Amino acid sequence: MQPSGYSPRLLTIAGLFVTCLIISNITAVKLIAVHGFVLTAANVLFPVSYIIGDVLTEVWGYAKARRVIWLGFGCNLVAVLAIYVAGILPGADFWQDQEAWDKILGATPRILMASFCAYLAGEFLNSFVLAKMKIATNGRYLWTRTIGSTVVGQIADTSIFMTLAFGGLLPLDVMLNAAGTEWASKVGYEILATPFTYLVVGWLKRVEGIDYYDRNTRFNPVLLTD
């Protein structure tokens, strides 16, 4: 039976998930260079959303994770609309920074569409794969499903975003190189965070008294009921 209610710890985890998502979308506009590899600044925080997604599914199950994923989508949409409205409002006569605002926060509709589609596909695949692997492994080998689900989820996330955002604008080899670097960095982030994930999952299972298995779960991503 799917655990009912929302504990303070679940709400805290959900809040962290939404925060990571919104901040990542804002910081993604900055490109950074790390040892010769060009990445978006979102790589600092966005992979954490996948780690949190793993924790949500592992402890509370796919249905609870599904609600949090949609919550993140809705909150990010509100943030995007708020930023858009703020950008088109007339600035004060003495305010001279509209160009800077538009350059940093005025994301194009194509980029936003790519980001939203990639997020939904990646997060739902991540949660689905982890839930199925948990059943297949009978709850053992947590590291295989946290890393395995991230590998699959990030393939979808990265490939969808790069295709929708830059298809036809960048040479194919440049897109593939950038996508490969993004994917590898996010999976590497997940691998390095595995010991921390073990600690958090173990603690939450103990204090919550929950270790949910999605044996009878309906995996339709658009359902909002448990």
From TrEMBL:
Source species of the chain: Hypericibacter adhaerens
InterPro entries in the record: YhhQ
NCBIfam families, A to Z: queuosine precursor transporter (TIGR00697)
Membrane association type: Multi-pass membrane protein
Pfam families membership: Vut_1 (PF02592)
Keyword annotations of the record: Cell inner membrane, Cell membrane, Membrane, Transmembrane, Transmembrane helix, Transport
Name assigned to this protein: Probable queuosine precursor transporter
Family matches, as HAMAP family: Q_prec_transport (MF_02088)
Transmembrane stretches, start-end: 38-56, 68-91, 111-131
